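fyi for ur records
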Amino acid sequence: MNDVEQRVAAKAFAAYWKDKGYEKGESQSFWLSLLRDVFGKEHPEQFILFEEQVHLDHTSFIDGNIPETKVLIEQKGLGKDLRKPIKQSDGTYLTPFQQAKRYITELPLSQHPRWVVTCNFEKFLVYDMERPGGEPEEILLENLEKEYYRLQFFFSG
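which gave:
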């Protein structure tokens, strides 16, 4: 896809997903559509893994993982504040990024992500794990038409 095609696709994607965002029922469709329709990834279901088990004191699940390019995704529902702690199934309160970091500690070192993306359908926060403690980059769904290129790291290892 060229730049113009990607801009058109990103605009259509953002329009379709505006005001949608049921975490359990729409997350996988959201990510598969983003990878396929905006970035032209053929067979995205072979590229991204969903609901991988992680064993903490209990079994948890990684919402999305792109092993090839070391991207871990923690998805939340529309309207959830990605910077505020949310009650977890074990009763603890963690931000989505803290939740992702908790999963990372249970993965083999070779599977640690370079990038952690937290998303609530209207906003992406991108954490570069090469900059521990650094502020995340923020990409708004409504600006995806102009800023889709900032998610190109999904495809470069």
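The chain has one domain: 3-155. thats all i got for now
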